[in-house]
Amino acid sequence: MPDPKRDARGTARVVLGLLVAAVMCVAFVGFLAWWLLFDRTASEVENALDDLQADQGVVLVYEATGDVAAATVRYSTTADVEEEVAALPWTKEFTVMGAFRGGTLDVTTGPDGGTVTCRVTVDGVEKRTATASGPDAVAECSDF
To answer: Membrane-spanning regions, if any (predicted)?
Structure first.
């Protein structure tokens, strides 16, 4: 004959197991809903900030200085690259529309050497500066 105490314990374990599984499912669904909501909200904020920056544009200033009479200056704001031999100090200002990321400014001394410095500001905030010395030395400002 079956033992009623043993059957009650077995039933209690099954009910407890089902209860734990249900709580875990509810917790998982809650976490998933929170994650999806948070991810969507962060993405929407990011898109809104990009749109705002795209509407306003930024002022980008490239500067080259040094103790050489002239240096080779190579720069880009997008995919186009410009190069010129320039007397120092040299400055170029752009208004760039959109969420600006990237660009390069390289300043190269000649074979006689010397010291050159590149400096990049975006809306008046310095983003990169670099100095190089020696013959054919390159000061590189990029990834800003």
So the answer is: 12-37
